[in-house]
Design goal:
The complex is a heterodimer of chains A (587) and B (164).
Chain A lengths: L9 H15 L4 E6 L2 H6 L1 H11 L6 E6 L11 E4 L4 E5 L4 H13 L8 E6 L25 H4 L17 H6 L4 H9 L2 H11 L11 H10 L6 E6 L8 H8 L1 H15 L3 E6 L4 H16 L4 E4 L4 E9 L9 H8 L23 E5 H13 L1 H6 L8 E8 L5 E6 L4 H8 L7 E6 L5 E4 L9 H6 L8 E6 L4 H15 L5 H18 L5 H17 L3 H5 L2 H18 L16 H6 L4
Parallel strand pairs in A: 1-2, 6-7, 6-10, 7-9, 11-15
Antiparallel strand pairs in A: 1-3, 3-4, 4-5, 8-9, 11-12, 13-14, 13-15
Helix pairs in contact in A: 3-4, 7-11, 7-14, 8-9, 8-11, 10-12, 11-14, 18-19, 18-22, 19-20, 20-22
Chain B lengths: L17 H7 L9 H12 L4 H10 L4 H10 L11 E6 L2 H5 L2 H12 L12 E6 L11 E3 L2 E3 L7 H8 L1
Parallel strand pairs in B: 1-2
Antiparallel strand pairs in B: 1-3, 3-4
Classes of the chains: A alpha/beta (587), B alpha+beta (164).
Chain lengths: 587, 164
Amino acid sequence: MSVETPITTRPELEDLADVGRESLYPDELKVLVGRASCGKAAGADDAFDALEQTVADAEEITVESTGCLGFCAREPLVEVVYPDGRGIVYEDVRHEAAVELGEALIAGRDPSGVSVLGVRSHDDNTSIPSDQIEDADGSATELSTLDFYANQERIVLRNAGLIDPESVAEYVARGGYFPLWDALHGFSPEEVIEEIQASNLRGRGGAGFPTGLKWELTRNASGEEKYVICNADEGDPGAYMDRSVLESDPFAVIEGMTIGGFAIGAETGIVFVRAEYPLAIRRLEEAIEAAREYGLLGEDILGTGVDFDVEIKEGAGAFVAGEETALIKSIESKRGEPEPRPPYPAESGLYGQPTNINNVETWANVPRIVEHGASWFDDIGTEASSGTKVFSLTGDLDNTGLVEVPMGTSIEEIVYEIGGADPGSIKAVQTGGPSGGCIATERFETPVDYDSLQDVGSIMGSGGMIVMDQDTCMVEVARYFLSFTQEESCGKCPPCRIGTKHMLDILETLTEGRGSEADIERLEELSTYVAESSLCGLGQTAPTPVESTLRYFRSEYEAHLDGECPAGECVSGATHDQAAELGGEDV
Amino acid sequence: MSSGSHNGAAIGEDVQSVALQRSLSHLERDATAVLPALQAVQNAFGYLPESALEYVAAEFDTPLSQVVGIATFYEQFALEPQGEHTIRVCTGTACHVNGSADVLDTYRQELGVNPGEVTEDGTYTLAEVRCVGACSLAPVVMIDDETFADVNPDDAMALLEEDE
């Protein structure tokens, strides 16, 4: 890679945006293949290779990679972008369809047998305009009017599936790094913190702590050095928002961290990312390298004298390391066991220094808040929960994928309208991973925000949303989550280590049809003890799946006492846990 | 990166090997670098041989007990040699509700090993993984670094041939 001259003036940044515009909105035909992990698993690499080979001799056609368009159920997704800005998104493009698409493009005809998901306009604009655009026979629907996209508001995901995630120029062409420019040139660190506070941004990792306040505490704490950390140890099973953001728009996270470093007074940023996300790590590495070349990371950023750099630390496979004190110990090369708080990391974090930890999605929101202002952000969502939230919507429904909706959107809107689930067949939705609960359909009018979800017995969590149909046994779901937390308990504090084991034993007894009423009572009692006396969030929230399923589905528990599983999943035919019992430890 | 992708019987277990020494070269020689050092060893050999644990303890000036404490805390590390390929069956929530237990059962029966074990011929390690973040494609199986979507018990074994 050629070494670029660091950017020190605004015209230079604007020049870089021009370079990005040339590849984002080219004069030639461009074929974009969504190559985040979901797309790849569905066959996007194969489609990419087939397209590249087919159009190899056609100089007027380029084939490029982009991140995740979000509609995982329809992957692999391939978009043809025409010089006039018209984009046609094709779905389910496997090998043969890719070859046919390539041949059709060369011949200048419509591809046959390749299904169109929708069309959109690629304009030099940060939002997709609503002009009516049509494909060749005028029948395709505009992407933004599809049920899946219609109620979404994409702020964090605005570049996902549009830009080449490894191109800093395309990121800048979409408005990237202008917020950093403005922050460093037009604001004092305190003013940046005020702006974030005024936006009411709350932590997207799940707990919802006010981000601006956290920054202020870290800025005001005394220490020789300060650190900012991006928590990308996305451990909740059923959640992959952060992976997708890192794979689709890594510069947004890095820019957010750089703005945070400036505001807090930190010169070192660390992204702590799961080793299970090799593609996210690779794209981050590329992005960090590119940012350094352009003087957007390192010394004297944008010629302002501000220093900030980012390094990557790979996790080593421990769910508890997502807890912030355990995460810090993991970065310090220690066993990732949590510590009691206070002191909070803001006072004494990494190597005993003031440390600010935010999650991937939180960081990705920061440049947008600086760009559009605090009140713009605060106006989105609800009074107490501003902005949007990204969810990974999976389970028993058609439109699985990543959805970003304003806070306050109801569960039913997400599950039925966006997700296309059949209301008659759905039993519950699970949010918040192993720390969250199952919410019954009679509570689906609940708006999705931090406080409302707690009121119905679950939590926002990091954004996993798993839809479960009538064939899913709620006792078995509770057992599944307890087997998870029991295995991931670090063992440091007895309530979590021993309490979750007892709870799991009881749940196993119940799913095997050998339980008694006393077991259910004991389970409730243990839930209270474990929640109240565990050291960290893992133990404190471990009983939530049990409490929530008991709250809404007690009759299912009781049926198991008579040897019946209403969902027909356990008691008689189940072997679900054999693997875990015989399996020993995970690798 | 993932433990299964660079299973390195071919490299041998020489801690002085050029490849390993290169990946250790940028690390500070103190206790704060033990974790990345162990990750480098795991990547080079596919597991952490006893001799390597002793080497890391001495080289990074950290008690062996502490090094072993770290090695046994994190799931990424294996203390026994691993198979040439690693089959990871995702047991995350979405995969679980979509029948990943049956897929895991197929591998257990066909390969004659439990999760965490290596097949007799040393070809495969069978493992569970707690979510690879491809939930919309559940159930998912990873073979080394490649991810396979919508796996059902009947075609689980065919993936192994595809991989070779």
